[in-house]
């Protein structure tokens, strides 16, 4: 996966063939990827896919069984090598923040700087508190802060020692939905201002797509695809990845190079395919319009209105159903006959 044009100085973290087993269970089954310095990555996958184990292996909390890990151009794990966490220049932000309840905000952030001269420590703490927008709250105790502020203290503490890499384990899961959106935007902005290299672990697709530069989808202990959020959503490499990333309709078809014959007509494909295929159709890429009623009509069978948009389920003339996402202005009734058009090109996978 590593490009020849990449130099070691440009790579923030690199995993090559990383394997970790717990008994007979393979939690990481040959994980390989690299992340450039100053970039943000999300390890995205369902529970049990190996994403948290991979994060713990990078941090040094677990020892690997095979493969190598490099951070900032230095190998920290491999055959006969396991550098402890404190020797890896890694900052951690945990799910529960893990702030020290008996000391104030300033002392929490100062915790990892004990080897620095006093004036340097004071300057560093002041700088990171200003960066995260908490410069006036240094004397506050953790319990006096709101959830979003506690999150920023945890991030400031991780940034203060100027680590080569920051690891964040489900950092927004303890926040309510409304606060979560705002805080993750703040965290992204802070990390970008700091020029940090960071890896998030999350199972939340929206969070991953909106937060980072690249997303690595993990399934069954492997990275199935790593790409920008836009490419991942528009060009998933497999049906499994497509199903996990966003809402997906699949309809059968027959591939003929860059076109597929389907029950919704001839569809242009992004890649050439031949023979029986499953065509990925995102709900927002389907258009419906009123149609005359006949025995072979597609019909609306369910309608859910959400205010900002609506989800319409259409039963096709073949009996299969697809979901269509529309703006709030459209009005369709259950049992109404409709015509269906797909905006392409589409992705198709051999079935």
Helix-strand blueprint:
Elements: E1 11-22, E2 25-36, E3 40-44, H1 51-59, E4 66-71, E5 74-78, E6 81-82, E7 90-93, H2 105-110, H3 118-131, H4 147-159, E8 165-169, H5 177-194, E9 198-202, H6 205-211, E10 214-219, E11 222-227, H7 229-234, H8 239-244, E12 249-262, E13 265-281, E14 286-290, E15 298-305, E16 310-315, E17 321-326, E18 337-342, E19 347-350
Parallel strand pairs: 3-9, 3-10, 7-8, 8-9
Antiparallel strand pairs: 1-2, 1-4, 4-5, 5-6, 10-11, 12-13, 13-19, 14-18, 15-16, 15-18, 16-17
Helix pairs in contact: 3-4, 4-5
Q: If you had to describe this structure to a student in words, what would you say it looks like?
A:
With 351 residues, this protein is α+β, with helices and mostly antiparallel strands. It is built from eight helices and 19 strands. The longest helix is centred in the middle third of the chain and has 18 residues, at 177-194. The chain has helices spanning 51-59, 105-110, 118-131, 147-159, 177-194, 205-211, 229-234, 239-244; strands at residues 11-22, 25-36, 40-44, 66-71, 74-78, 81-82, 90-93, 165-169, 198-202, 214-219, 222-227, 249-262, 265-281, 286-290, 298-305, 310-315, 321-326, 337-342, 347-350. It has two domains: 8-89 and 163-242, P-loop containing nucleotide triphosphate hydrolases (Rossmann fold, 3-Layer(aba) Sandwich), CATH 3.40.50.300; 247-350, OB fold (Dihydrolipoamide Acetyltransferase, E2P), CATH 2.40.50. Helices cover 23% and strands 38% of the residues. α3 packs across α4 (147-159). The strands form four sheets. The protein has a six-stranded mixed β-sheet, sandwiched between helices. Strands 2-1-4-5-6 form a five-stranded antiparallel β-sheet, with helices on one face. β10 (214-219) and β11 (222-227) form a beta hairpin.
